[in-house]
Write the structure tokens for this entry.
Amino acid sequence: NVIVEKNLRQEVVNTLLMLEGIREGSAEHKMILRKFNESGLCPRYKMTAKDAWCATTVSFAFIVNKLAGKQGSGALFQCVECSCAEMVKLGKQQGIFVESDSYTPKPGDVIFYDWQDSGKGDNKGHPDHVGIVISVSGGVITVIEGNKADAIGRRKISVNGKYIRGFICPKYADPTDTREHYPGKLPILPARGYYKKGDGMTTLKGSRDQIKRVQEAVNWVF
């Protein structure tokens, strides 16, 4: 479902966009660490406020959208980690890691960097940093990252540019996504203004039905 895929990708991106600008040590930063630790999806390590938190931020975006799970769980993102190298390893195990630096990513894809990249050939070095792709336009990738100058911020990098290590590309279109999405149509409401007699909206039953449908639509969007 193209619409479901687009929505899921945007949900993951929007999660970090809403936190753009928050700084290390803030209440929001501590919330990210807490959600990560409480998920139990990275039992090998418990994050503290003193740790580098780029991979944790990426993991958080999938955790809060209920898209994360353990290896073999069938979850969209089975790569929850606080280490870039370990996240890459899990991405390979899940079969969603793209090794090619020249890949053109989509919004919601995860991009890794290697600051020791020589710029020659396909980089297969140690991943040092990670973020989530916001958009790609004119050969330029816009990324949002945690722990960028001790905050959540944006970076721009060219497609196939130096320092790209690879990508984790979750299968957003996978039909195994079982989250509930509003299956109905958006409510048909009267024209803006006062209700008029005979418009079908002034009866108690009709109003209740419309309110219920509006609430369902709101729940679907948010």
Remarks:
- The chain has five helices and six strands.
- Confidence is low (pLDDT under 50) at residues 201-205.
- Strands lie at 97-98, 110-113, 129-137, 140-145, 153-158, 164-168.
- Helices lie at 2-17, 27-39, 54-64, 84-94, 204-221.
